[in-house]
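Sanity check. The docking grid for iron/sulfur cluster depends on where the pocket ends up, so I'm generating a full predicted complex first rather than guessing from homology. Inputs follow.
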Amino acid sequence: MMRLPPFARLAPRTLAEAVEMLADQGPGAAVVAGGTDLYPNMKRRQVEHHALVDLRAVEGMRGIREEPGGGISIGATTRLSHLAGSSAVPRALAHAASVIASPQIRNMGTVGGNLCLDTRCSWYNEPEDWRTAVGFCLKAAGDVCRVAPAKSHCWAVASSDLPPVAIALGASVRAVGPGGERTFPVADLYRDDGIDHLALLPGEIVAELLVPPVDGLRVTYRKIRRRGSIDFPELGVAASVRLAPEGICEAATIVLGSVASAPVRCREAEDLLAGRPLTPEVIEEAAAAAAHPAKPQDNTDLSHVYRKWVIPIHVSRALQSLS
Ligand SMILES: Cc1cc2nc3c(=O)[nH]c(=O)nc-3n(C[C@H](O)[C@H](O)[C@H](O)COP(=O)(O)OP(=O)(O)OC[C@H]3O[C@@H](n4cnc5c(N)ncnc54)[C@H](O)[C@@H]3O)c2cc1C
Ligand code: SF4
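Predicted complex below; grid placement will be based on this.
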């Protein structure tokens, strides 16, 4: 049995207290919400933390509410099961939450934990004895990337389900830290670096996800995985389009998950759709272009060749469902 290493657990009641505690603990401390990813990672000794600031009892951080000016605020410690069952949020977002992991994990896992999920790699998400035998890698205690040894870069994969659809919805996050608070697009939360994958400032905590009014935007999310439950996505496709009354696409956003260390925007495909009707030919053209920016590596369950090959198929299906 893998056991957690010893650590101090701090239980703030307010967000200000959480920020202060995290700062006081210094480097090596982290926040924990549902713990569904962080605790297994600590058990496998992928990460070490001498202290964890537990966000679960922080007041005002959980729940879904309508914003006075329109749009929805989703508190960072809102459970995935709550989001999945909510009729107040866009359907694509609720659907993305409903296909994460399993019911038990959705009852513990949170929106903030999903947005800030560590990147994954089949050479990294293994117990310590396995990694000791095979050799450590750049992301944890080693000096070489086992996937691409010639490069000193980590290609671990951003595999969480909510970020692509949050970006397609034009959502933002509000983060609070020692220097105050700021609100920025979800896309800006990520860096394409498997080790340093979040663009949060030191000590910052994600407080809420802010979803603007849907206002006629059509949005969908497709998840490709080996099994029908529990599995992380091998590919996530989020797409949104705004159609003029005569069926012309005024604007489109296509975001891929699980093909890089950050969600990938398919700008070429989006440009191909703008100003054109969503006919089968236009959709096929855009779907083919959507695969161009994706460079999956051989570090997840299915081969990189397969994961690249299926992108146009699923982007096409996503766009068809919106036409
Ligand atoms: C068997 C299994 C299957 C899974 N399948 C999927 C899947 O299909 N799709 C998927 O997306 N995920 C999956 N997960 C991962 C995980 O369960 C979910 O992503 C969940 O949403 C993580 O939320 P959490 O609250 O448990 O995060 P935690 O484990 O508490 O934290 C995760 C990370 O986020 C940080 N963090 C948490 N909250 C905040 C915050 N408010 N501000 C800043 N940083 C924060 C933590 O420090 C930690 O680094 C799976 C996990 C398991 C064990
Ligand atoms: S991509 Fe390379 S450095 Fe990153 S976790 Fe995998 S093996 Fe390690």
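Relevant for the grid: Residues 137 and 145 are 5 Å apart (CA to CA).
Also worth noting: The mean pLDDT is 96.
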